[in-house]
Specification:
Layout lengths: L11 H6 L4 H28 L1 H4 L6 H17 L1 H14 L2 H19 L5 H4 L2 H31 L5 H9 L1 H16 L4 H4 L1 H5 L1 H13 L5 H8 L7 H8 L1 H31 L5 H29 L1 H23 L4 H29 L6 H17 L1 H12 L2 H20 L6 H18 L10
Helix pairs in contact: 2-4, 2-6, 2-8, 2-9, 2-10, 2-13, 2-16, 4-8, 4-20, 4-21, 5-6, 5-8, 5-20, 6-8, 6-13, 8-9, 8-20, 9-17, 9-19, 10-17, 16-17, 16-18, 16-19, 16-20, 16-21, 16-22, 17-18, 17-19, 18-19, 18-22, 21-22
């Protein structure tokens, strides 16, 4: 068994069964991920539907859209810095403090968005203030993923790490669903309050999230590293020096998922509105349905990796993404509500979720425990720079080439991920599954306990 999978000394039972807190950690991490996604993705919805005229001059709609998406991209651009800081602290101080701190920072920033003055009130300062708050959001969200996923991953039994991290990853579609539900319900409030109320409601969610996360136990693998004096002195430099190839591979794997989402959801929402193919209520309903299906889909895709491996599932997702670019826009261009709903469901529940459901287990397994948060977070968040500016790039492409440009860009992202998948090693193949099964049998023989069930949590 590789060094990445060797259990801490004296803990075969933890490797087989996970810790007693495994379910609480998975659910707690998922709830936190839900809240942070509500905050961060809600900004994307508002940017696509409202911010082009609220925070920027309404005299030029295309310029306003470009500026709105540029502001959206700023949050993604600073996510790597949040990932670096959060990853460093996660490997040096612990996973739990990062979880609590990132959620608190995100909450403050999101509520502030709800009270910002508009362009009509303060002119160009409105855009400046929006960018400043978006930077804080990006830093917080960048630190979030590594802490939440690593806590779940390291508490979970090895044979079900795909399932458990899939539960945490499912917090993201839950947040997406809640954010868009809030915007849908707030539509009747009028242009002034329709975008403010969803951000202000975040205050309630943050309080709930902080209470839950304070009760989550620290990662057992980090506690073991600390007890053995094996905590890395500089995890960021260490992972870049010893494992930079895996950082690069995971970066390319992640681009397909996150940039694909930015194009097929964020850009598409703006595309549907600007071309007047449908109204906002249809768009939001389609996205909400896709997100609702995505809650189960993400978890099931993760669980599937426990049975057949991480790489086969990723190959399926990237191959579908390559083929989906042109059909996606052909469906959208019909202007039919049913076709638009199908477009969102396939783009999200199939293309995006099949990849997100794998990442929670595959990315951490590529790195050693002492640098795991830094390595996984760095790769995960660096890709956010590409995805953050994808709506802007897609808008510029559309202005020059029509819908075919964004469609081919979506397929190109899929091709990048497909190639990266073929170049990344399998971390949970037949050999690894067989070794864990042998460990389970040996443990069962020593303790007289029945072998662990094949499925379930």
């Amino acid at each position: 068994m590789s060094a990445h999978h060797t259990p801490p000394a004296g803990s075969p039972r933890a490797a087989i069964e996970g810790t007693p807190a495994r379910k609480k950690v998975a659910i707690g991490s998922s709830i936190g991920a839900t809240i942070e996604t509500y905050d961060f993705i809600g900004f994307g919805t508002a940017a696509a539907l409202y911010f082009n005229t609220v925070f920027f001059p309404a005299t030029d709609p295309l310029s306003g859209t470009l500026l709105s998406f540029a502001t959206l991209g700023v949050g993604f651009a600073v996510r790597p810095l949040g990932g670096i800081v959060g990853g460093y602290l996660g490997d040096r101080v612990g996973r739990k403090p990062v979880l609590v701190g990132s959620l608190l920072l995100m909450g403050v920033a999101t509520v502030l968005i709800g009270v910002l003055p508009t362009y009509q009130q303060v002119g160009a300062w409105a855009g400046v203030l929006l960018v400043a708050v978006r930077v804080v959001q990006g830093l917080a969200f960048g630190a979030e993923w590594g802490g939440a996923i690593l806590m779940t991953f390291e508490h979970a039994p090895w044979r079900r790490r795909g399932l458990y991290t899939g539960i945490t990853q499912a917090g993201f579609p839950v947040g997406l669903l809640l954010a868009n539900a809030a915007f849908l319900v707030s539509v009747p409030l009028g242009e002034q309050w329709a975008w403010r109320v969803p951000f202000l409601l975040s205050a309630v969610l943050i309080v709930v999230g902080i209470v839950i996360r304070l009760k989550v136990e620290e990662s057992p693998e980090f506690e073991t590293l600390k007890a053995e004096g094996a905590v890395s002195e500089n995890p960021l430099l260490e992972v870049l020096r010893t494992d930079w190839r895996n950082v690069l591979r995971a970066f390319c794997l992640r681009i397909t998922e996150t940039a694909g989402y930015a194009l097929s959801v964020t850009f598409v929402m703006s595309y549907l509105a600007s071309e007047e193919l449908t109204d906002r209520s249809v768009t939001l309903f389609a996205l909400m349905l896709a997100a609702a299906l995505g809650i189960a889909a993400t978890t099931l895709w993760g669980a599937l990796t426990d049975r057949i491996g991480r790489r086969p599932v990723y190959l399926i997702g990237t191959a579908i993404t390559v083929a989906w670019g042109v059909p996606l826009f052909l469906l959208l261009n019909t202007g039919q509500a049913t076709a638009i709903v199908i477009a969102f469901v396939v783009s999200y529940a199939v293309c995006q979720n099949s990849l997100a459901g794998v990442q929670g287990a595959w990315f951490p397994e590529l790195f050693h425990a002492r640098t795991r948060t830094s390595g996984a977070s760095l790769a995960y968040q660096l890709s956010a720079v590409v995805s953050g500016f994808t709506p802007l790039i897609a808008t510029a492409l559309y202005a020059r080439t029509g819908w075919l440009g964004p469609a081919l860009l979506f397929s190109a992202y899929g091709l990048l991920g497909l190639v990266a998948t073929l170049l990344t090693r399998e971390t949970w193949g037949r050999a690894e599954r067989a070794e864990v099964a042998a460990l389970e049998r040996a443990h069962s023989a020593r303790t007289g306990a029945d072998p662990a069930p094949v499925s379930g949590i």
